[in-house]
Design a protein that fits this description.
Length: 113
């Protein structure tokens, strides 16, 4: 069973940047899409960005132009570069791979105004 481990969350001021990384433990990662979701307090989990095994990407409207998702099939990682962060980006961020349906444990991102 593949596992995902996220890293890179933290506290940053508005306008700052963070980079989240998600490391997979198995090569099945190469054949899956990788995605980042987030869940803010009192809100539903929402898709932030997704990248297919072929490298095609899609983003939530709220993060377009600010966030960039990427993957490294050699090192089995999917990353999320987040620039120009806003307080409304504050949430727990989760990585996931599909169709395997495996989720990471989540990492907190807090953006102060």
């Amino acid at each position: 069973q593949v596992q995902l481990v996220e890293s890179g969350g933290g506290l940053v001021q508005a306008g700052g940047s963070l980079r989240l990384s998600c490391a997979a433990s198995g090569s099945i990662f190469r054949f899956n899409s990788g995605a980042w979701y987030r869940q803010a307090p009192g809100k539903q989990r929402e898709l932030v960005a997704i990248i297919t095994s072929a490298g095609n990407t899609n983003y939530a409207e709220s993060v377009k132009g600010r966030f960039t998702i990427s993957r490294d099939n050699t090192n089995l990682t999917v990353s999320l570069q987040m620039n120009n962060l806003k307080p409304e980006d504050t949430a727990v961020y989760y990585c996931a791979i599909f169709p395997a349906g495996v989720w990471g444990q989540g990492t907190q991102v807090t953006v102060s105004s």
